[in-house]
Amino acid sequence: MSSKNQVADGLSTTALETKTYSVAKLLDLIRTGKVRVPYFQRRFRWQDEDRRLLFDSLQKGFPAGTLLLAQGAAPAERVVLGGFTADVGEVKEALWVVDGQQRLSTLAMAFLDERSGAYRPIYFDLETNAFVLGARKRAPPPHWVPTHVLASSALLNKWLREGALPDEFSDRADQIASRLREYLLPAYLVPFDDEYEGVVKVMFARMNRNRHALSTDEVFEALHATREGGKPIDRVRAELTQVGFGEFEGKQIERAALAVAGKLPGAKLVDALSAAEVPALFARVSQALIRTVEFLAEDCGVPYIDWLPYGGVIATLAKLFDAHPKLHDRNRVLMARWFWRGNLSGDHRTDNKTDQPKWQAIGSDQHETVQRLLKLGNRIDVAAEVEAPLQPFNRRTARTRIELIALAAMEPRWLIGEDRGQPLALGALIEKEDQVPSAVTNASGTIVDYLLHPKFDLTKLGTRPDKVTLESHGLDDAMLDALLSGDDATFQAQRTKVLTHQVQTTLREWTGVNDADHDRPPLDAYFDSESA
């Protein structure tokens, strides 16, 4: 039936339709390609327990929320929803998911995907009469029914026959299967075509914004996505990924855009820009962030974004490289000092109060800009941190990341294999989870207990690597002997001396705290108002 109530501007009084769908009907619509995910939707965000709780709600008859579906034509394409993937034809009246993607994706991956392995499977435990999460690589108990079996009477009957379960369990399985398939989800249907597309996007952003389901960058993406250009933040993220520095978070790109646009750190991008400003701004943001990545990798020695001590530095650097695409070589040296000092003092934490003066320091004269940024730092704290001993290892902390980057400056080489003695491509190895760093002792005290090298069996090392290769890891023959004999204490004592010296010496050089030049600007600054 059609609602007679007046709705938001841009939607006629009869355009909003209400309807209910059974889970079985929704699954049929998904199978036939009649349920689609619009280009402005976000990624799947639910955790395993969120998915299990949805099934718990369906079992108990709890409300599972109202769907918002936009009805309109859909092209022939590959449809991906949850774990379900299919090549489908053109549909004249498809249902585009505006609100309810997480729920429908959960239903699809549970009922239509027979274990892709991408997510932990959900089962119905016939003994406890409850939905449970299973393990990815371990077979479930015989009384746990896979959810995809519950979606089909034929599959369920076959599963029950093969399992030879008690009649009580069979009856319980039939009951829960019927309850799930017959569960009714209410839905609002709105038109989705060229006339209403903008209205639907606003509805999506406003609904999620009001209940805080979307982050600010996701709201921005929803409002400014286009069929041709896609999502502006996602587009920049994809361009940056090609550089090989890792994947930026949406909120990092959003904050960089705020800085480049000349807005305050506390502003919301969705409120700060008009649609007309977005394409040109994000073209600038992309270029500024590419220059930022080059600076971080080449001038600061950061091999991968996951090792960045503080992500708050990205927006400031983006604003700097937007204003001054070609920094003077001397200014690049000074900005590398600024980068490392802020990491050691904690000044590069994401903080509106500390970021605002940094952003405001960036003006039309690059020499004055760099000098203003340097003066904002706290050199007393930096000097103390430079001389600090090695800290407890925790790759989530800024200090451990700083020490790891200082070790990376030793240019570690392969210790094994055909490439032994050749430099490691750290960025590529860091990208593979748990590859680098790898533990070499049973302790996890400091970086001393780790190598910037993929894990391998030390007893199968074979011929000793040469001196240069060992030294690239802060090792020598004596340390290797101690390690192979199981004498961790001797190994740790000897390597602690070497790595402490390496970290402290490297940080002194990078921060320039003891340099006699006192952060002198380039000589050009005394003759030119602006240098290319």
From TrEMBL:
Domain GmrSD restriction endonucleases N-terminal span(s) in chain numbering: 24-224
Region (Disordered): 513-532
Record-linked Pfam families: GmrSD_N (PF03235)
Highest taxon, organism lineage: Bacteria
Protein name: Uncharacterized protein DUF262
